Fold each of these.
Amino acid sequence: MTEPVLTVDDLSVDYVAAAGTFHALQGVSFAVLPGQVVGIVGETGCGKSTLAHAIPALLPRPPARIVSGTITYQGIDVTKLPAWKLPSIRGTGIGMIFQEPLNSLNPSFRIYPQLAEAIRIRRIRSRGAAAGRADPGPFDYSRAAPSPGAAESLARPLVPPALVDGARRPAGTGDRPLRAEVLEALRLVRINDPETILNLYPHELSGGMRQRIMIAQALAERPALLIADEPTSALDVTIQAQVLTLMKELIDEIRTSILFISHDLGVIAEIADVVGVMYAGRLVEFGPVADVFERPRHPYTRALLTAAPDHAKTDGPLTAIPGAVPSLARLPSGCAFHPRCALARERCAVGAAPPLQPAGATPSPEAVAHASACWYADEVS
Amino acid sequence: MGRSSSDLVWFIAKRLLLLVPLIVGVTAIAFILIHVAYPNPCIIWEGGHAKPDAIANCERVFGLDKPIAVQYFLYLQQFLTGNWGVSPQGSIPVLPAILTALPATIELVAASLVLIVLIGIPLGVVAAQASGRWADHLVRIVYLGGWAMPTYLGAILAAIFVAPFLGLPTGGEFSSPPPFPQPTHLSVVDALLAGNLPFAWDALVHLFLPALTLAVLNFGIITRMTRSSMLEVLPLDYIKSARMKGLGEAFVLYRHALRNALISTTTVLGITTAGLLSGTVVVEEIFTWPGIGNYAYAAITGSNIPGTVAVASVFAIGAVVANLVADIVYGILDPKVEWR
C-alpha cells in the first residue's frame, strides 16, 4: 500500500468567540494518496475552509483552537510543529491557492519578484539548505510525462527573439536562469506573453489572470500537496470555466496530490478522483467520486445531488433541502443532519453522531473505500 | 501605465509648482500674525521715550505708514530678492544668519528622523505582531511616555540625567572650535570634508543626544501608525500567500507586510518632520545647538521682528517641503498612484 501524502486523523477545531464556541471541525479523518485529487464539497459554513487552512497551520490561534487530532504530512504532525518550523513544510511541501485572486498577490510588488521568490525558495530547499522536501519525489512535474499541450508550450522560445537585444531592459535581466524559470512557470498556466506580465503590478491584471499567476506561483515550488481553497468561486462564470479547464489540464501534467475545496458539485465531479462531503463540521461521506455521485450512501449527499441545478432543465422550481444549516455553536444532538433528513428515526436524534464507516469489505487494498456516516446508509440509494 | 521615470519627473515637477502658491500663503500668514503681535515695531525700536517725529521717521523708512497689503507686497518683493531685513541689535542681516543656522537644524532634524525610523517602525511591527499581549502593552507605554512628555521636560531630563550617565556633551556642535572651514555648516559633513575624523566623531557625539531627545519625544505617532497599518495588512490574503510560499516570519513581516504598511506611515512621517522643525526651538536652546530654533528664540526675545517673520516663513516652508517629500515618497511606494 502506498504511503499517503497527507493523513488527517480525528481532527477537531473550535473557534472560541464571545458569542460562544463554534465547532468548526469535528472528528474529520481522511487521507490523500500520492497523485490523488481529493475534492471536499459542502455548503458555506460547513468547515471546508477551516480544514483547508488547518492543514498548513494557517488558522489564527486564537480564535481557532485544535481540540484533538493529528495532521500528518510526511511523517510530521503539523499540529505539534513549533511556529518557527512551519515555513519548512509550506511552499515546497504544501502549496495553496486561495479563493480571492484579487487579494492573494502582494499589491506592492511586480509579478516578477513574487514568482522569483517562490522559485528561489525551492532552489534553496532543493540544495538541502533547509528542511522540507529536499528530494523532488515522484510527484515532481518535471519528471512526469508532460501532456502534448505542455510539450508544445515548453518548446516555444523562452524569450521572443525581438526582445533579446531590445532597448528595453525588463525586470530580472542579468539573472537569466531564474528569469527563464519564471517565464516557464507562467507558460505552464497558459499565459502566452509572460514577458509583458513580469513588469506589471497585480492591480493591472484581471482576476482570472491573477488566479493563473497564483497557480503558477504555487506550482513553481513543485509542492507535494496542493490545497486549492475554492480557486474558482470568486471569478466570473466564463473565467471560472477557463481556470477550471486549466486546472484539469495541469492535474494531468503535474501529477501532484491535490486537495480541492469547492461548494460546486459539478466542479468536484470533473476534477476529483475521490470526494469527501462535509456537513456541519463533519465528513459525512467519503469515497471514489463516481461511486459517491452515482450511489450516495448519506442522505445529505443525496439531497445535495438532487438540489444541484440541472442546466438541461429550463422550467419548474429548483429543488431545495428543507430546513436550514444548523449553527456551529448549537448543533443538534446525534446526527447533525437529522432535523432535515427524510430517513431520520429516533436513533438519529440521540447519542453521538454516527461514525464514518466503510460499506462492507474494500474491493482491493489500493482502492479507496466508500464510507458514510449514516446509520441507515444502505437505504439511501 | 504612467509609472516610467519620465512620468516621475513630471509628477515631482507638478508637486514643486504647487509649492509657489503655498509659500505665498504661508508667508502672508506669518506676516499678518507678526503684524498683529507688533502693530508698530518703531515704538519698540525707537525706545519708550522716543519723540513722535522720530517714530514717524522710522515708520517712513520702513514703509510702516503704508497699508498692510502694500507692506506685505513690499516685504515679499524684498524677501524674494534676498533682502530679509536686519536685526535691530547690531544690524546683523537676517538672511546670512539664517543660512548659517538652517543647516545645523536640518542636520539635527535629519539625524532625529533616522532615529525615529529606526526606533519607531520596528517597535510598531513588534507591537502589531504581539497585538494584545504584554509586548504590545510595553511598546504602548514606551511611546506614550515619550509622546506625552513636554519638549522642555524631555530635553532637560536628557541634559541633566542621560548626558552624564552616558558621558555625552550637552552643548554645541564641537568640543573645541574646528580648525577647518565650514562650507556646508553641517558639522559632521564639514568635518568629513576636511578629512578630520576625530572632529567628525566629536560632531556625531554632540549631535547624538539632541537628536535622540527629539526622536524619543516624537517617534510615538510613527509606532502607532505602523502598528495600526500592520494590523490592517496582516489578515489579508497576500500575507497568507507569502506564508504559504514557505517564507520565514521575518520575511513575511518586514518584506511583504511592512512594505504595504509603510505607505500610510510615510504621510505621518511628513507631518512629524514638520513638527520636528519647530520642535527644535526648545531642544536647540537647551543643548545650545546653533540652529534656526536657537536663532528664533533670540529673535523673539530680542524684538528682532524681521528675524521672527523670516523664521516663521522658514518653518512654514519647511513644513510644506516635508509634506511635499512625503507626498512624492507616497507616490513612489504605492504602485496604484499614477505619475502624471
Amino acid sequence: MRGFIKFVKKETLHILRDSRTMLIALLMPVVQILLFGFAISTEVNNVNVAVVVPKWSEDIRQSVNKLAANPYITYKGAIAEHDIDRFLRSGQADAIVFFAHDYDNIIQQWKTNAAGKPSMQFIMDASNTNVAQAGAGYLGNILAGELQQSANLVETHMLFNPQMKSAFNFVPGIMGMVFILICAILTSVSIVREKETGTMDVLLVSPVRPLSIILAKLVPYFALSCINLASILLLAHYMLEIPLTGNLGSIIIVSLVYLVLSLSLGLLVSTVAKTQVVALLVSAAVMLMPIVMLSGMMFPIENMPAVLQPVSAIVPARWYIEAMRKLMIQGAPFGLIMKDFIILVFMTLGLLAIALKNFKDKLQ
Amino acid sequence: MSTSPLAIEVNNISKSYGTIMALDHVTLNVKRGEIFGLIGPDGAGKTTLFKILVTLLNADEGDARVDDLDVVKDYREIRARVGYMPGKFSLYPDLSIEENMEFFATLFGVTVEQNYDLVAPIYKQIEPFKKRRAGRLSGGMKQKLALSCALIHKPSVLFLDEPTTGVDAVSRSEFWDMLHGLKQQGLSILVSTPYMDEASRCDRIALCNSGRVLDIDTPQHMVEKFDGSLYAIKSSHMFQLLKDLRSLKTVANCYTAGEYHHLLAGDGFDAGQLVQSLTAQGHEDVELKGIVPDIEDVFIKLLSNES
C-alpha cells in the first residue's frame, strides 16, 4: 500500500510538471462549454426586421412596438416598398414585414369571423435557412399571436427547454466527449510514454506487478476528471442556466461510471499502441470521431442511416449522453435511465476485462 | 547462498525477429562475482540476450538460468533479484535525482537509506544535485543515476546494457572503476559494450557478431592465443597503401587502425622485402613494425576466420 501511494504520487508529479498538458486538461472543458454554450449555438437570437407600412394606424403602431421590444428582434425601422429588395440584399434586414393597406379591416374580420384574407406578409432572406426559419417563427408568434389564439386549433408547449436553448443539448454531449478525451487519451498516452522511453522495461524487471503501476497511473487522471466534472456542472448551472433539476447524485454516479469506462478504454488503447503518436491517433480515430458523429451529440440518432444506428449502440458516449440529457434537462428520476446505466456498467466491465487480459508483462 | 558457482547460464539460446536471426545458438556462462563483458558491434545481439536474461523476452530455443532460476519458469523471482540498466536512458526525466531514486527503491520495497552503503560510492557523486531533474543531467551523471537506481535493491546479478555508450572517456573510465568496486562487494555483473578497448576491464569476455559468439575467454588469453604475426604499417599514401597491401598474396589481412594500418602476415611474408617493394611502388616514409595484438585485432581475425 505504501508502494501504491508512492506510485500515485509519482504519476501526480508527472502531470503537475507537464504544466501544458495539465492546463489543457483543466481548461479544455471550460473552453468547450463556453464555446458551445455561447459562440456555437444553433438558436437564432437576433433577426433584423424592417417594416413596410402603406397606411399607419393605431393597431399597426402597437404591433410594430411589440416587434421592436422583443429581445430576439432588432427593429430596423419602416422603409418604402421599393427598398425591400435593396434592404434584403445589402443584409440590412433579414426579414421584412409588409402590412396590408386595409390592415385594420382585415383584423376586424378575423376577430369577428375567425376567417379572412392575410393581413401581412413576411418576406424572408432565406440564404441562411436557420435565420429565415426561426425568424418567420418569431414574427408569427409576436405579430399574429393574438389572432392565432382565436383561430388556431393546435397549442404547442416546449417542455424542459422552453426557450429552445441549444446549450441544453450540447452540455451532455461535451461531457461525453471531454471525459473520453481526458481519461482515455491522456491515460493511454501516458502509459505508452513509459513504453516509448523504455521506463516500462525497468518497471517490468521489478517485483511489482506492472498492473499495479498502471492502476496507480489511473488515479490522478480520475481525480483530474472529477475536477472537470465539477467545473462543467458548475458552469452549466450558473453560466448556461441549465436547471440540473434532476437528482444531482444520479448525475454524479452515472458520470463516475462513465469515467471508469473511459479509463478502461485508455488502458485498452495503451495495450495495443507502441508509440505515443499511435496511441493518440487510435484514440482520436477510434474514439473521438464516433463520439462526435455517432453518439447523438451533434446529429440525432433517429436521423442516421439505418445501417449506422446499430453501430451507434456500441458507442458508450451515446448511452451516457442520453442518460445525461434525461437527468440534467428533463429532471428524470434514476429509474428512467436504468437502461442506459446498466449498459454503461456492462460496457465498463467488458472493456476493463479485455484491457486487463490484453496487458502483457513481457515484451512482444 | 546458492549452490551453483554460476550466476548466469545460457544454453543454446536462439531468437529471431521475423527472418532476422538476432541470436544464433548462443551458449555462455558467467561465474559468480565476475565482470563478464559482451563485446561486439551494433546488431551483434547483445541487447536481445539481455532482454531474454532479464525475462522481458522469451527465447525461441534453448534455456537460460539467472542466479539458479529459470528465466521462463521463475521470471517473477528473477525480476526481484536482478538489477537491470537498459541501453537507453530509462529514468523519468521530469523527476529529480532524489525522486527517481526513491521511486525505484519503492518499486523494490526498500528505502534509499537501507542500501545506501552499496550505492554510496556512486550516488555520492551526484547527490549534491539531487534536486535537479534527471532530464537536465549530463550523460555521465545520467549514467551514474541509472546505475544507482539499478543497484538500490542490492541485486545479486547486475545487467548493464551498453552503459558507457554516449559517455565521455573520463566518465567511462570512472564507470569501470565503479564496477570493480561493486565486484568487490560480491556482485556478478554482465555488461555489454561496443568499445573493444573496454574489454580489458572485464574478467572474461565474449566476442560476438551477428547473433553468434565468436569466442569466450579472458582478455589476456584471447590476445595470447592470437597466432600469426601482426604489424603496424604506415606511409605517406595511406589509402593507396591499404589497396596495395590487400592485393598482396603474402598479406593475410590488412585494415585501418587509427594512425596505422594493421597487417596480418600470411604465407611467405618478408618484412624487409615488403618495405622495399612498397617504396619501389612510390610509397614514401614507409614504416613497418611488429606489434602485440589487442582485442580489436583478435575480433577482426575471428571475423575473417568465420567468413
